[in-house]
């Protein structure tokens, strides 16, 4: 494994900017040729004398070969390019195409088919890992979030500023913002506030010609495409400007399970006729799976109803008993907490004592939980919403 690092960048606006390239073990002739290629990939202000080739196994080896669902049979990237400032990104798309290498853009790598980190043709990865700045402005209720940040990091930064603001995203904190938001972004606030893309107000991206554009300069059709159409097809998204949404200081969650023996069939049937008619402050996710309930290996179906309510528990129980009494929700089934704590609850992390106040630091953990990120995970949930 080799790491190629440029330690000096002459741009007066950027000091000590760096980038890292890593890939599979390559012969020295190829690496020497790579220096020449880099000269055309990067701006002419880069000092080639600053390039160093060091036999190494850096963090990016773990990201490529251990973090993601890769096998020895899948083609591996020739190298990984991870810019640490926007200037080092702007000239890549058009120049890389001249060298017959396909460019894969990776924000968090959560796509279930592995599209961002493997290909059947020679390719390299443009990893947005280092572009992860998050600037929250509570006064105008917006935030600029770079594409390499994770959903968890974004919610943590919002919670640092306010316990009455949030953002509608999916319930996996290690998802990359760039991929999640550009693909739509659905989650447990969508009945109230829609998808993530419904709350994006601006973006910064680089097109194939190396131009840095925003919502005004790309036009409404292009902006529509990168907010739901999968941005990597159209350019390299550097950052999104999002509109924060308001949430109560305390929300309520519950996770109620019912088996066939507990009348799950009728409850699920009623759920399909009731869920979309409930107030938009209530979101209920239904999941079902086969489970063993006796020592004699008797199987049954377990239906799990997990909910977020933007309000207090008393209001929720009263409402559910009037509109969905078949579920049999009790006050003891409910727990009140802050919005960011409810997100932790939905991600199946335990709420420890260090998570009871403020922004839980577990959201800053970029490591994947392999028990949650599986190929069947994307299809196990069935939402009924309006």
Automatic annotation (TrEMBL):
UniProt-listed Pfam families: FAD_binding_4
SUPFAM superfamilies hit by this protein: FAD-binding/transporter-associated domain-like
Molecular functions (GO terms): FAD binding
Cofactor(s) required for function per UniProt: FAD
Domain FAD-binding PCMH-type: start-end pairs: 73-247
Record PANTHER family: OS08G0158400 PROTEIN (PTHR32448)
Protein's name in the database: FAD-binding PCMH-type domain-containing protein
